[in-house]
């Protein structure tokens, strides 16, 4: 008979392991405590969280594209079936998931894909509120050029007439006012984009029907300012597996900072020659070095990381602005906050074995003196404006080793908009009123910075 033979064999196998792990553990095996799906255009992440380590072996099938994964050490349980229901029809990468018991203790997961992908499968040890995590990051193999997409968007806006006419350029007005000249109210040439972009084809990112940048799209410098497209990278902190700080009322940092970033994006996009680029525009995790890499890929003129502070007690309040430091933190509090923000990758979950992550981290340790000087100017312009709409935690721009501020060629600041751990400020962070005031203040800060430090015509090769 088959059954007794099997049990005897399993009993023998179990015998040696029980000595190491104890009866309880073996009797239960690993139990799945949660399954999550984080879809985004960049990549879709699947997370299987369990109370013990589980192993997976995966193989990719090209036609039709699908990823089959055998997960060892678990049985098919309702939690895993939930994964099937959690895939939304608008997921950019996954069309569906099938699960089945492949063998005793082995569950097969088949992830049907909408396009060819490059999977990264890795495990994460328990951290913060999480137990063991088995992570599947599904990256599309074909990625659109984000800079071309931005230019196409701006052109489409202009053609649709949704952008205001270039005649009312607040930066030009401010520069003129500062230099005592009348503002140049003549309409600027249409479709002004950077010199570096003029010979690029629209590529796969451009939507059909969007015209290629016209010859006059090249940058022109007039009255000391440039007419090229100025790109402001907005970086809403945390996302996906990493909620960031959580307020006493349950408000998650990752949600409010995304809302504030969306409001600021709308204000930036209303400027005649500006476009906002979001390092994440939905609820998914982006590793810190990838945020920097993304801003550099679109050759951003500024990088603004948006966060909400937290402390163990309810009392601390007010906004702070940070820049990078080359020689240690400006205060122990600044160092503490930088350490806290830098630990986002641990909670969010990065594949530390991926070569790309190591290379990128090494690249980001470059000389940054000029960047820091510009970042301090940007930071104080923003701090001054935030002080008009809310309390400040510190009246001066502070400095510390924030990983996300390390683009050597982009003035970069991190704004802690308020203390989410303070009940009053948590309520403000959630309110439309304060979000609007804050976005307006940040926009004025950007405008003030550019008025004193006009964006230059660029001929960088990268
Ligand atoms: Zn944060």
The total domain count is 2
CATH architecture descriptor of the largest domain = 3-Layer(aba) Sandwich
Main sheet attributes: strand count, strand direction, barrel closure? 6 strands, mixed
State mean pLDDT (0 to 100 scale).
Answer: 80
Which word captures the global form? globular
How many helices? The count is 13
Which fold does the CATH topology of the largest domain refer to?
Answer: Aminopeptidase
What is the CATH first-level class name of the largest domain? Answer: Alpha Beta
Return residue spans where pLDDT drops below 50 for at least 5 consecutive residues: 1-28, 177-222
Global structural class = alpha/beta
Q: What percentage of amino acids are in beta strands? A: 15-25%
Summarize the structure.
With 462 residues, the protein is α/β, with parallel strands linked by helices. 35% of the residues lie in helices and 22% in strands. It has helices at 2-21, 23-28, 78-86, 146-160, 170-178, 253-269, 288-297, 332-342, 344-348, 355-363, 369-389, 423-430, 432-452, and strands spanning 32-38, 44-50, 55-61, 66-72, 94-103, 106-113, 117-124, 132-140, 221-222, 225-226, 230-236, 274-278, 302-309, 320-324, 398-400, 412-419.
